[in-house]
Design a protein that fits this description.
Blueprint lengths: L1 H10 L13 H4 L12 H8 L5 H10 L11 H6 L19
The chain binds iron/sulfur cluster.
Length: about 100
């Protein structure tokens, strides 16, 4: 999912990627940007800070309530800024105690 979203995001800012001759880090190893998958947040963040999309990406993550590291920001940072991540799974019947 992330590579697709980032590709769409990148297409909105072609001028930022004009001199980018390597793939964006999160498209190479998406799991690194998912702390739930065991990726070290510090490494992912440092790669984001070298990415030309860092500001656009952080704004996207806030407004689309994404999980994981986006634009060098963590879920916690975005939550504290008023942009909590969406729940992983919509509440189903089990969450209400109905089986
Ligand atoms: S800022 Fe980080 S998450 Fe966003 S496109 Fe760049 S490498 Fe990927």
């Amino acid at each position: 999912m992330r590579p697709t979203v980032v590709t769409q995001l990148a297409s909105r800012f072609p001028e930022l990627l004009r001199n980018q001759d390597s793939p964006l880090p999160c498209t190479v190893d998406p799991n690194l940007f998912d702390p739930d998958a065991g990726g070290p947040a510090s490494l992912a963040r440092s790669l984001c800070y070298q990415c030309p999309l860092v500001q656009a990406c952080a704004a996207y993550a806030c407004h689309h309530h994404r999980r994981g590291i986006w634009g060098g920001t963590t879920e916690r940072e975005r939550r504290l800024a008023g942009y909590p991540p969406r729940p992983c799974h919509p509440a189903g019947p089990d969450s209400k105690g109905e089986n």
